[in-house]
Design brief:
Helix content is 39%, strand content 17%. With 274 residues, it is of the alpha/beta class. Strand 8, helix 9 and strand 9 form a beta-alpha-beta unit. The chain is globular.
């Protein structure tokens, strides 16, 4: 079982999957807004992916392994109920893998600023990982001390990465499996995290409704990615959010909440029709 948080008490089931170095709680504000003021509009499950947050660590990264762990967690929570699965970045890849491998579990899919393709390598994360590994955990006296020692010019990125730092009594540890991701960075263009496995590309297409949200200012989704997306997810509809980068739900939360509430409403109508 993966670690989870919840929001909402009624309505369709919605699972949120975060990106690399994120945690389920990164989606909490969005989940609360989607579930409505009294929590009756959606039952949201915010998942910590393997190697992140409070979830168990893996020996080696596997996108299909991550999807299987999410599937087991969703079934343990909702039996054979169908879910709206929302995934950002790495979580979006996991969500797509889940839809392709367990289509009976996914009633609707929302993919946020990622495409089903090989992104080459994780070199853009190498500096972050090196700084995280270099932080002298045994010497830290406080979170403020950690923040002063961690070298990163972007305060938002620093805060995001340091959310993975946890205090246990008088000692500190990283919740994210840094060694695993460092090994993946070292693989260069053979990165497993950046890859999209051929085994997934060869699976039958997922026939459920798909909303593909992209940030207009992001380089993660390009026009040429549409062909592969439509081949694997023929019922895809794209929403490009002006002024938003890769973190679409942070840059334009109102737009994302409105889009997700429409997806939830359509799922509720479909359930009523049955």
């Amino acid at each position: 079982m993966l670690a989870t948080l919840t929001a909402g008490t009624g309505g369709p089931r919605v699972a949120f999957l975060h990106g690399l170095f994120g945690q389920g709680r990164n989606w909490m504000q969005i989940a609360k807004a989607v579930s409505g003021p009294d929590g009756a509009d959606a039952r949201c499950l915010l998942v910590d992916l393997p190697d992140h947050g409070r979830s168990p660590w893996s020996e080696e990264f596997s996108l299909e392994g991550y999807a299987a762990a999410v599937a087991a967690t969703l079934r343990a929570t909702g039996g054979e109920d169908r879910w709206i699965v929302v995934g950002h970045s790495l979580g979006g890849k996991v969500a797509m893998a889940l839809a392709l491998t367990e289509p009976q579990l996914v009633g609707r899919l929302v993919v946020v600023d990622i495409a089903p393709k090989d992104y080459g390598d994780l070199e853009r994360f190498a500096g972050y990982i090196r700084e995280m590994q270099a932080l002298p955990l045994a010497e830290l006296t406080s979170r403020a001390d950690a923040e002063s020692r961690y070298v990163e010019s972007d305060p938002g990125v620093k805060a995001f990465l340091l959310q993975n730092l946890r205090r246990d009594g008088h000692s500190w540890r990283w919740q994210a499996n840094l060694d695993l991701f460092a090994r993946d960075v070292a693989r260069g263009t053979d990165s497993l995290v950046a890859d999209w496995p051929e085994s997934l590309a060869e699976r039958p297409a997922y026939e459920g409704p798909v909303l593909w949200i992209a940030g207009a200012e992001s380089a993660y989704v390009r026009q040429e990615d549409g062909e592969a997306m439509r081949r694997m997810f023929p019922r895809v509809r794209q929403l490009t959010v002006k002024g938003a980068g890769h973190w679409v739900h942070t840059d334009a939360p109102g737009v994302v909440v409105a889009a997700l509430r429409r997806v939830v409403a359509s799922a509720g109508k479909a359930a009523d029709a049955r």
